[in-house]
Design brief:
By secondary structure, the chain is mainly beta. The protein is 7% helix and 74% strand.
Length: 225
């Protein structure tokens, strides 16, 4: 919400600054900056190659961190005997995601202010997920730890299609859908330990796969330079 408010304020400032220029002939701006919202945060730079084509370089970055304390009760039935185990613990999760992309866009003007476009290009991505769980048994005071690290590389191609609408000479609104196909190489390392009992285990897994996804509507403000 804060990003949207700031974007609207910037938009108002640009419209006020260039109000007089809007009545003049629009210049042929070669460069543009796109700020995306209502989706994964992204900043991209566009360089016009001709009146109907451009190259767009994009950077997507996203991160999150979660921490919680918990009390857990596990109940087991064996024959008619009920066993109850209680634990106190904490979980810590961190996620990081980054994408670098390059797209070639082709534009088709629909009127003076509205343009339809389609684009195609490659991208590379890096994802990191870190999970830490430590819990203590209330019955035996045993401390157990579970750690998981998942890291992946992705290489793919995206197809974008959308419209641009000129709000003023230097500011436009972009709306687009994006379809992605990618190849993923993932490694997962799990470690479990109980220092009290001097127990430790480790498991590593590597996965190769592919995915296809149609992503939700993306909106951006375009600032021409």
């Amino acid at each position: 919400m804060k990003f949207i408010v700031i974007s609207l304020l910037v938009l108002f400032a640009f419209n006020t600054l260039y109000a007089q220029k809007d009545s003049l002939k629009t210049r042929d701006y070669k460069n543009g900056i796109q700020l995306y919202f209502l989706t994964t945060p992204e900043l991209s730079y566009t360089r016009k190659l001709s009146k109907v084509s451009a190259i767009r370089l994009g950077l997507e970055a996203e991160s999150s961190s979660d921490f919680r304390n918990y009390n857990r009760e596990n109940r087991y039935f064996r024959d008619t005997t009920l066993s109850t185990f209680n634990y106190n613990g904490s979980e810590d999760q961190d996620r990081y995601k980054i994408r670098l992309s390059m797209v070639y866009n082709y534009y088709m003007p629909l009127d003076e202010k509205l343009r339809w476009y389609a684009g195609l290009g490659p991208y590379i991505g890096r994802d990191i997920y870190i999970f830490r769980d430590a819990y203590t048994s209330m019955q035996s005071d045993d401390i157990s730890k579970a750690n998981t690290d998942i890291k992946s590389w992705s290489l793919g191609i995206s197809f974008n299609a959308g419209v641009e609408y000129d709000i003023s000479e230097r500011v436009a609104l972009l709306a687009e859908y994006r379809y992605r196909a990618e190849k993923i190489e993932e490694s997962k390392l799990s470690r479990n330990s109980n220092p009290t009992r001097k127990q430790y285990s480790e498991h590593e897994k590597k996965v190769s796969g592919s995915s296809w996804s149609l992503q939700r509507l993306r909106l951006a403000l375009i600032f021409r330079l």
